[in-house]
Write a structure and sequence with these properties.
Oligomer: single chain
CATH superfamily of the largest domain: Umud Fragment, subunit A
Order of helices and strands: HHHEEEEEEE
Number of strands: 7
Shape: elongated
Distance between the termini: 23 Å
CATH topology of the largest domain: Umud Fragment, subunit A
Strand content: 15-25%
Length: 158
C-alpha cells in the first residue's frame, strides 16, 4: 500500500493530477511553484522525489517534465486478485489516493457488476490490477473491461 502524503505533498500531487487530466501533460516546475505559492524550485523537486519514492508518480530522468501518475499499488504491495469470470457482483477495495478526483478514498469498498453502461464508472483490469475510470476515458477496443461501479461504502473512524 502506498505511504500517505503530507498536506504539502498532497497539494503538489493534486495539482499534478489536475493539470495532467486537463492538459494531457505535466506542468513545469515554475508552474507548480506559482500555483502552490512556493518560492523555491528545489522544494518542488524535493516533493516530486518524495512522490516518486512513495509510489505516486514515476519520473523519467532523461526527459524534462516527463512522468506518469501511478494508478495502482506499487510493486511491493501484495498482488491483487482478479475477480472470477462469473456473472454477478464483485468488490474492489480502493488501495491508493489516485482516485480522489472521482470521490474515492483509500479503504473505500466499491461494489461492481458485469457490463459497461454509458456514463458510469467503469472497472478495468490494467497492469495486473483493477482500476476505475469514467466511461468517457475508456478505450473499449483495447482496455479490458470487468464491469461498472454500482455502490461505494466508506467506513468512518469513530
Amino acid at each position: 500500500m502506498q505511504e500517505s502524503l503530507t498536506k504539502k505533498q498532497q497539494a503538489v500531487y493534486d495539482y499534478l493530477l489536475g493539470e495532467v487530466r486537463r492538459n494531457g501533460y505535466p506542468p513545469s516546475i515554475k508552474d507548480i511553484c506559482d500555483a502552490l505559492g512556493l518560492r523555491s524550485t528545489a522544494t518542488v523537486h524535493s516533493h516530486l522525489t518524495v512522490l516518486e519514492k512513495k509510489g505516486y508518480i514515476r519520473k523519467y530522468p532523461t526527459k524534462n517534465r516527463t512522468f506518469e501518475l501511478v494508478d495502482r499499488p506499487p510493486p511491493a504491495a501484495p498482488a491483487p486478485q482478479r475477480p472470477p469470470d462469473t456473472p454477478g457482483r464483485f468488490v474492489y477495495r480502493v488501495q491508493h489516493d489516485n482516485l480522489r478526483h472521482l470521490g474515492l478514498l483509500p479503504g473505500d469498498i466499491v461494489t461492481c457488476k458485469r457490463g459497461a453502461d454509458k456514463g458510469r464508472l467503469v472497472v478495468l483490469w490494467e497492469h495486473g490490477g483493477m482500476t476505475l475510470r469514467p466511461h468517457d476515458q475508456v478505450d473499449f477496443k483495447n482496455d479490458e473491461v470487468l464491469g461498472i461501479a454500482v455502490e461505494m461504502r466508506r467506513k468512518f473512524d469513530t
